[in-house]
Amino acid sequence: MKNALGVEIPEYIEGLGELKPFQGVWESIIGDEIPSTNIVRTLKAKKAHTSKLCGDLKEAVQKCNPFDGMTVTFHHHLRGGDGVLMQTIEILDEMGIKDITLASSSLTSAHDGLVPYVEKGMITRIFSSGIRGRLGEIISMGKLKHPAIIHSHGGRVRDILTGRIKPDLSVLAASAADEEGNATGAHGPSAFGSMGYADIDARYSKNVIIVTDNLVDYPCVPGSIRQHFVDHVVKVDSIGDATKIASGTTRITKSPMDLRIARIAATVIEHSGLFKDGMSFQVGAGGASLAVAKFLREDMKRKDIKGSFMIGGVTSYGVDMLEEGLFQAIFDVQSFDAAVSTSVLNNPQHIEITCDQYANPNNCGAMTNKLDVVVLGALEVDVDFNVNVITGSSGEIRGASGGHSDTASGANLSVIVCPSFRGRLPIVKDRVHTIVTPGESVDVIVTERGVCVNPSKPNLAAALKKAGVKVVDIKDLKKEVDAMTGIPAEKQLGDKVVALVEYRDGTIIDVIHNVENLS
Amino acid sequence: MTPKFKAQAGTFESSDIMVLIEPVSEEAGRQIDISSTVMLQFEDDIKNTINQVLDDLDIQNVHLIAKDKGALTPTIKARVEAAVKRSLGIQEGTM
């Protein structure tokens, strides 16, 4: 069957069940809800004054009675420094557990060690918002038994609430925790800020283990994760590489290209009609995307604009803007550098939120639905404004869906910033390799050679032209770029489906086919 | 014409190409070794561009090594021309 974007979607996949095709950004919301079943919370009990502390992670895992075919979940707040996910998988492997479904909120460079476990069939299913590195390559080559499912951040919450992902064991790292399992990422030697992605696992998993390198006296404050969801607590020597978990402050790019794109994007925002007191704003942490914040900050000061809130994906740059009074509050689901942890801990206007509150399409208060402006990156865009942030130029899985489609759908103005070509590869295509965010929810694409406005927003295009912004038809931009770079030969992809891209409402928006012989 | 000296032009920066020329004996023919970050997409294009510059400069016998980081065609042409002229000792202007 074909979905609304013309992609052929299998009706059923062995090991994953029936699939629903994507019908449109808001089509699945009927009335004020998305018709779907929801699961109930696991009932748990513990006798008074008994201890949750375990000697080591292995003991805690054993107490959870792991079994073949179980689902194990993690959060990715430790980013490239995570040492907990691999430790847990190694323990389960030693115990002989197999046919595991791995459902981490994302996977990073710290998880290349999963490759042998996938290859030997110990891990047979993966749900994640991102897959990178060698792991992405071997999945692209078809080494994972069942197709991987790429979900958005908000989609993952929905996946758990609807039982698509059924967590049997959740091992959640914290930079500080107490003996009952109250836990946070806001302080401690390995502080990483918000624990927003872990909340849904803690609430709905059958077995929750808190792992920390910093066991503090009861009670641990703030309780980002609360004790009444936690089964076991483990003190370990290390939860990972602190320097890769969070360090220093995020710097604005010095790349002239990124700065030029960011300058144009800030001008687009200024003339969008949304640049006024009370504006809400979200920006990614990458190159041109974060640089937009730099220019917006200058523009806000120049025009004396006071915004309402920022959400994210929070960097120290956002914290600076909060402290300058440019915004009233930050809603923080994920923090990107060490300086942010201090702000989460000390500034009451810097509010830690759960991923549920951030972006879940199945609730009545997702922050993304209250967002005015979001600035996002792209690996590729196409003439229909679809965006790819998951597969690279060889068709290999090497990115993350993250909150891209969540924020694009909710924001009044979604701005994509990207160069028109990268290292001779044109970024504007007739059709992107993989659609993560549908063009329906993308308003503007900003490149160094001009700004493309979605034809569904003629008033915006007119306003930008009037302000002197170089507005170009995306098809003309494509021709211009192709003439410079030449038309790239496209690699022939295989017939095997190696991953499914799930839209935030649970429907399938695209499929990823296998690539042969990645180096 | 036949290159007399080892010569190079370009850098390893993104969007540039490093071209190395090694002299070979007369009638050895052209040996062109290309590595590129966009090999998959532009291998033939890069090869044709290099051959075209060599044709224009009438270079039949040469060992040319190109390490490409996604250079556009005009960049490739300029780097090959500069490397060849250096190898012939006929480059004009300052070095």
Automatic annotation (TrEMBL), chain A:
<dbReference type="InterPro" id="IPR006472">
    <property type="entry name" value="Citrate_lyase_asu"/>
</dbReference>
<dbReference type="GO" id="GO:0005737">
    <property type="term" value="C:cytoplasm"/>
</dbReference>
<keyword id="KW-0963">Cytoplasm</keyword>
<dbReference type="GO" id="GO:0008815">
    <property type="term" value="F:citrate (pro-3S)-lyase activity"/>
</dbReference>
<keyword id="KW-0456">Lyase</keyword>
<dbReference type="Pfam" id="PF04223">
    <property type="entry name" value="CitF"/>
</dbReference>
<keyword id="KW-0808">Transferase</keyword>
<dbReference type="GO" id="GO:0006084">
    <property type="term" value="P:acetyl-CoA metabolic process"/>
</dbReference>
<protein>
    <recommendedName>
        <fullName>Citrate lyase alpha chain</fullName>
        <ecNumber>2.8.3.10</ecNumber>
        <ecNumber>4.1.3.6</ecNumber>
    </recommendedName>
</protein>
<dbReference type="GO" id="GO:0009346">
    <property type="term" value="C:ATP-independent citrate lyase complex"/>
</dbReference>
<dbReference type="GO" id="GO:0008814">
    <property type="term" value="F:citrate CoA-transferase activity"/>
</dbReference>
<dbReference type="InterPro" id="IPR037171">
    <property type="entry name" value="NagB/RpiA_transferase-like"/>
</dbReference>
TrEMBL record, chain B:
<keyword id="KW-0456">Lyase</keyword>
<protein>
    <submittedName>
        <fullName>Citrate lyase acyl carrier protein</fullName>
    </submittedName>
</protein>
<dbReference type="GO" id="GO:0005737">
    <property type="term" value="C:cytoplasm"/>
</dbReference>
<dbReference type="InterPro" id="IPR006495">
    <property type="entry name" value="CitD"/>
</dbReference>
<keyword id="KW-0597">Phosphoprotein</keyword>
<dbReference type="InterPro" id="IPR023439">
    <property type="entry name" value="Mal_deCO2ase/Cit_lyase_ACP"/>
</dbReference>
<keyword id="KW-0963">Cytoplasm</keyword>
<feature type="modified residue" description="O-(phosphoribosyl dephospho-coenzyme A)serine">
    <location>
        <position position="14"/>
    </location>
</feature>
<dbReference type="GO" id="GO:0016829">
    <property type="term" value="F:lyase activity"/>
</dbReference>
<dbReference type="Pfam" id="PF06857">
    <property type="entry name" value="ACP"/>
</dbReference>
